[in-house]
Design brief:
This protein has ten helices and twelve strands. It has an eight-stranded mixed β-sheet with strand order 6-7-8-3-9-10-12-11, sandwiched between helices. It has a four-stranded antiparallel β-sheet with strand order 2-1-4-5, covered by helices on one side. Helix 3 packs across helix 4 and helix 6 runs parallel beside helix 7. It is globular and about 70 Å long. The longest helix has 17 residues. The chain has two domains: about 220 residues, Rossmann fold (3-Layer(aba) Sandwich), CATH 3.40.50.300; about 70 residues, no CATH class. The two termini are about 40 Å apart. It is of the alpha/beta class. Bound molecules: adenosine-5'-triphosphate, iron/sulfur cluster (SF4) and magnesium ion. Magnesium ion binds next to helix 1.
Amino acid sequence: MPATMTATGGSAGPPSGDGAVAGTGEVLLGVRNLSIHYPIAIGTVRAVTDLSLDVYRGEVLGVVGESGCGKSTLGLSILNLQKSPGRIVSGEILVNGHDILALGPEDIRAVRGPKIGMIFQNPLTSLDPLMSIKDHFIETMRAHDPKIRKGQIIARAEAMLEDLGIEKRRLSEYPFQLSGGMRQRIMIGLTLILDPELLLADEPTTALDVIVEAGFTELLAKLKRKYNLTVVLVSHNLGLVAEIADRIAVMYAGRIVELATALEIFQDPRHPYTRGLMDCVPNILLDRKELVAMPGSPPDLVNESPCCPFAPRCPKVFARCLAETPRLLADAAPAGAAPAAAASAPAASAAAPRAVACFLHERTN
Ligand SMILES: Nc1ncnc2c1ncn2[C@@H]1O[C@H](COP(=O)(O)OP(=O)(O)OP(=O)(O)O)[C@@H](O)[C@H]1O
Ligand code: SF4
Ligand SMILES: [Mg+2]
């Protein structure tokens, strides 16, 4: 089965940034050694395995990977939400240094919404068809501040609609009266109205047509600036991520296998899986005539073997890959790596070193 990555508008890249890591260098979100399992009848799905990741205040981090690699499971865990029967078996999720997995129900409510807002994988079904848009804003804001006056909410909702490019008269309408793109923007507005520091967007454009999808990154970039957001954008759509991400985490089989700036990923992917993904999408940076489908499919997460999870599909597999699992380590360019490629990918800041989980990129000293 070929890889299922896609590109917006038919081509990926070039990334919009200059390749440097955006943000302040302050870690807003730290994921530490996170493992999440789904116990099912035939065994245990290891959806996320020993995953660690820092998200810096002010950056846009893209999380990409094929279907089933654990992107949504990771995203939900950041709010300590798990799809049944999932459970976090180990690890920490630190928001501003505080482990949210240790919070009680009241304290976690103060994080979900006001600190971290999430747009779910299928946002269009999240609106109540029997409630006007205005009532959605009232319900959302009163859930966090029961005493807030209606007039105050309406004023803020009207200003938010203006930022979203929607006429304020739409506030009195119902979801069925709005287009798919408008409903998606309303979902973003309902998230941002609580003024979160971090916005988590899980496949925010999957339910939209390509024309509406094309305007999404522009809107997100504008909102990010206006609301001082840090963004984690989860997507299987490399083209979409390339348009806005400062850094990209590539996931495979519940692990991060490469973490680098968007420009590094697009100009010089190091992990063989990342290279395979890049070969699957049109890339206007490279003068490439043919797309190459990646052979095989992701591994069974129930019956994992102690080898590199990518080994069965890897064109560079060697003996050690079949006996051990590589860890995500600061990248060491493999012997013989083209100096031109290394030079054209700006170095990531010291706070966010490039990392790869592949024996070909392990330091030997
Ligand atoms: N509720 C569940 N019960 C059992 N297994 C699950 C459940 N939800 C997800 N999984 C499994 O966990 C793994 C990771 O799934 P997840 O939905 O996190 O992947 P994803 O990368 O978001 O995929 P997609 O791109 O299709 O949204 C997959 O093997 C999936 O089958
Ligand atoms: S560790 Fe081996 S199998 Fe895994 S990606 Fe690297 S070369 Fe390929
Ligand atoms: Mg998902």
